[in-house]
Structures are given as structure tokens and as C-alpha cells.
Amino acid sequence: MGPVSFPSPAKTAYYLGLGTLAVVDVVEWPVALAIAAGTFVGQHTRGQATAIPQTGSAHHDGHQRPSSGS
What radius of gyration do the chain's Cα atoms show? Predict the structure, then answer.
């Protein structure tokens, strides 16, 4: 078995708070589960998106070239 990493105290408090809200019926448990899952996925996929190459008349700085003509 490899090394085990624990979440930061802030993440732990976030998930415990969310669980507490579900237990005391401030939010429904499916909503709390969806929020927790979305947060988890968002934290673990950040920075893994690949850049999509631009096509057309965009400059290297991302701005459109001014159109010529009327």
C-alpha cells in the first residue's frame, strides 16, 4: 500500500460543513452529494484542460484583426 494523503483542513471543514447541512436538512442530501461531487471533480481536473488551437483571423494575442472594407 502506498502513501496516504489527507485533505487540507480547509477541504475537510468544507465537506464536514456540507455533510452537516445535509444531516440537519438545510439542504437535501442529493443536492449536498452533487455539490460535493462537483467540487471534488473541479479540484481534481483543474489545469488538465488542453488548449484548443485558434483558427481564422485571430492574432497571437487573441484579438481579431480589424476587417478591411466597408
Answer: 22
Domain span including residue 33: 9-43
**pLDDT tens digits, the chain, 70 residues: what are they?**
788 888 899 999 999 999 999 999 999 999 999 999 999 999 888 776 555 555 655 555 555 656 665 5
Tell me 38's DSSP state: H
Q: Do residues 22 and 32 make contact, with C-beta atoms less than 8 angstroms apart?
A: yes
- Count of domains in the chain? 1
Indicate whether this model's pTM tops 0.90: no
Place of cell 488551437: 53
